[in-house]
Amino acid sequence: MKANEEWVHPNTITGDAATNERYLRRDRINEYFWREVIKGNHILFVAPRRVGKTSIMKDLAGNCPEGFVCIYENIEGVTSRNEFYRRLFELILQCVHRSKIKQAKDFIERCFTQYSITEISKSGIKLGVQHIDYEKEIRDLIPELTKATVHVVIFLDEFSEVIHKFKKSGLHEDAIDILHTLREIRSDDDFRHFTVVYAGSIGLEFVIKQIDRPKLINDLHPIQLDALTEDEANLLITQLTQNATIRLTENIRVYLKKKISYLLPYYLQLMIEGVDELAFGRNTPDISEEIIDAAFQKVLKDKKNFEDWLIRLKEYQLVHFPFINDILKHTAYHGQITVQEVYAKAEKFERTEDYMDFIEQLLHDGYLTEPKKHIYQFISPLLQQFWLQKYPVYHEQ
Amino acid sequence: MSNEYFPGSFTFYQNANADAESVKEGFLVRQYEYSVIMEDLLQHPGKESVQHYLLLGKRGSGKSTLLRRIQVEIDTDKQLVANYIAINLAEEQANIYRLFDLLEEIVRELEYREMEIEEVQADQDVHHYTRQLFYVIHRALDKAGKKLVLLLDNVDRIFESLGDDVSLLRENLENYSDLKIIGGSTRMTEHFWAYNKPFYEFFRVMELKPLTREEVKSLLLYWGDKLEINDLKEFVENKPGQLETIRILTDGLPRTLQFFVNILLTHSQETGYDYLRLLMDKVTPLYQERLNYLPPSQRKIVLQLAFFWEAVGAKELAQVTRMETRLISAQLNQLIEKGVVTKVETKTKNHLYRLSERFFNLWLIFTQGSQTEKRKARYLSIFLENFYDKREIIEMAEKHLDAVQEQKISANKAVLLTKAYSKMPDSAFNLSLFYYTHNKNKSEVSSILKSLPFEKLDEVVLPQLQVIKVWIGDLKNLEQGVRKLVDENKYDLTFMLTELLVHHQVNLVYRLFTSGENASQLVEKYLPIYYATQLLMPDAQQAAIKIPPELKETVNELLSDIHENRDFYYNRK
Predict the structure, then answer these.
(1) Which of A1, A273, A304 sits opposite B222 (nearest CB)?
(2) How many Cα atoms within 13 Å fall on the side-chain side of residue A254?
(3) Chain A touched by B193 (CB under 8 Å)
(4) Which member of A6, A250, A366, B421 lies 3.0 to 4.6 Å from A48 by CB, making a disulfide possible if both were Cys?
């Protein structure tokens, strides 16, 4: 019963964000991001869930260039307008507090006095002053950052969830107020040392569309997050398995990557975990194509709830489900669908006026991705396989 | 619930109370999951990302034991003690209604461990109060330089009660790396898989699957060795069929296996069925409580689902329960929510349903079923016992032949041959059987059969004779002959039915199972063969989804044998 005691598992992480040695930095993303921030852009990360937004944001926040000081914060627990501003206010102070520059330290010292701060730590801030108008204080505080000579970058994760939640719970006006304030801050020259980076599991554009205020975010610079390149995937496989017992030859790596197709770190890690479990059970460190296939089936079987993806689609696209499903079936069978093919289908379904809305919806909801302009494919190989199993026969319409 | 043979070392229901050494010593299965989690804890004590885990498994699959084992290791391993605090909220979980309840429990535990923790004033604003509790917990952990490993059995129930607070929990898990959740759950609730829920695919899910044949064998041999009980080793070696029957019909659950060992050592029985009967007595308090907990209408549905055994539709359930289909559907949805029933998707809107826990299904048959239902269970256990005994003999013969004869004749055939020679006096028939097993000299066998004095043959060989006739192409009056054997109801027909399938007589076998006076009894006696036959029919996919999960492995083994033998007889190069 004590077999495999010496077995070393791959260094994967699935679920929570990957950091440090579990994360594979993609310099192209970091360089592009900082280039845009230096230009004065405020960033909006655009990607469905499980693409790796949080991991990228944490890495960016933890490794910012000289002259910048950054903080990452998930704010999905915020439930009121005042709590949001208070949180932002505290984040600004916590962020500057991290800087080692003398001017920044002086700035913080002044804040200690002004707000009777007794403590700033990573757990939060203790203020002596009660009943602060945090929105006003933020407006006063940010221009002062010029004196601190640091550029503050705050990564607000799950910001769109907060706005969405406000809307759902009847705090529509509060949501608009926050969006207005942030828009004003972005456009004011006095606030040029301050950048907010937005992200969320629900696309912010989608939420804004719901509250009918597109102008409140149309100045944000969207950064689309995509899959790993072949080389990056190789690096990640090496990183995850370098001390592990399992061994993947060059050919097997090629096979694994082909199996996953769209190389998101999450699915790569899921597959490696599946491979490790099977190999452990058989006490076979050398991985074969057969184990890769079995791992794929195992992961597919373990993810028991793909049915939900179909039900969801049927529920909120009751009328247009046949059109959307035809797009997905085509994509599952052919591995991809082009915009021309989508249009041809739209003609048959008489949706040539708004066919791209459906594509945007599928992109936003994590069904499809757009690896190249106007070419769409399933974001998850598992979801694609589910569609193939669900519709074993497909007649092109 | 007595625990005669595992005093101290092994406890059944409340592993939270076992002492550390006993927990370590008795921890034998779920090694993969344990090693993954331990390696993670040892390699990532720092500030980097935190992997959270969800251990998914049926009751008795070893979730609590695994959680307790992890706790013990964290509490006793020097390196882990230096970096972690483990809190296992096993009994206190009933008090948790809101997120702050959970956090208050954590605060109490930290105080109990004499950690420095700031006081939090109770607040009317629950949201603010919850944040304050998080704050003091993070502060205390930071000061102590440790991470908290929160071991939560039935984590699904906790998530259900948290409501909107789940966002606050996730926020804290994302912003701080000092909290790790390892949860146990009997089901995947939508919190863990729905795209619009905060914890969508957040946990690494590790499913605690039924123990395999090899794992069960190793476990019993280990126990036998550890507790110095030779009977266990003898049982494993001499009663493979009984052991496999018990494993299959009790969901391969470690807890049930412990019950079984106790019975084996205190009240040795003749058959696998007898062991199953005694096992049912052992689990009765647990399952009776579960049954009583359901409202009467749901109890009725659950009982009928158990008696159907295979997956059935709402319409069929409505007929036997005399309840409206609409009402049945609503009750089924609630039972699915509770994890008692599993929905089996079909191509149409009419889905099928079955009880999720198969051992619970069997318990209901044993304890609440009529004589007919109990008979079904007995026949099934007899079939499985014989089937796996025979397979074991074949496996042994294979090994033997590998060594001695370099596989000059098929092992399956060799066993059959040995049995035939030992039991049948008529050498002409034996020669026919010999040729059959070697797929040779069909014309000679035709001549032999023509001159064979059938009246002098031992009637035990009659089913084999039918098979040989099919093999040589003598199909005259086949159905009549085969039906006669079925109607006489005194032969073991396993060989005949499976070999008829080998020789492509699927329609005939299917008719035997579905028409005629003895059809239902034939199904009862040879249930796995009945399912295998269905799977060889054109609408196999529809049939496959009805098969009780505990029988799938056996049915697949049967099919694999059939295909292998088809290759032998029809595609031999």
Answers:
(1) A1
(2) 3
(3) yes
(4) A366
ipTM score: 0.89
At B556, list the tokens.
């697949």
Residue B89 dihedral angles phi and psi, to the nearest 5°: -90, 85
DSSP state for residue B7 in the 8-state scheme: T
pLDDT at A348 over 70: yes
Q: Which runs of E-coded beta strand occur in A65-145? A: 68-74, 117-121, 124-127
Residue ranges matching CATH 3.40.50.300 in chain B: 15-207
CATH 1.10.10.10 spans which residues of chain B?
294-369
**Beta-sheet pairing, A43-46 with B53-56:** unpaired
Decide if A14 and B193 are in contact by the 8 Å CB cutoff: no
Report the C-alpha gap between A232 and A254 in whole angstroms: 13
Q: For the whole model, what pTM was predicted?
A: 0.83
What is the assigned CATH class of domain B294-369? mainly alpha
Per-residue CA distances from B311 to A286, B336, B354, B521 (Å)? 40, 14, 5, 19
Interchain proximity B31–A2, CB inside 8 Å: yes
Closest residue in chain A to residue B187, using alpha carbons only = A304
CA–CA dist B30, A294 (Å, integer): 20
Q: Tell me how close the Cα of A386 comes to any Cα of chain B, in angstroms.
A: 13
pLDDT tens digit string along B219-242?
888 888 877 888 888 888 888 898
By the CB < 8 Å criterion, does B138 face chain A? yes
What is the domain extent for residue A189?
25-224
φ, ψ (nearest 5 deg) of residue A232:
-65, -40
Task: Say yes or no: domain B15-207 is CATH 3.40.50.150.
Answer: no
- Do A214 and A109 belong to one domain? yes
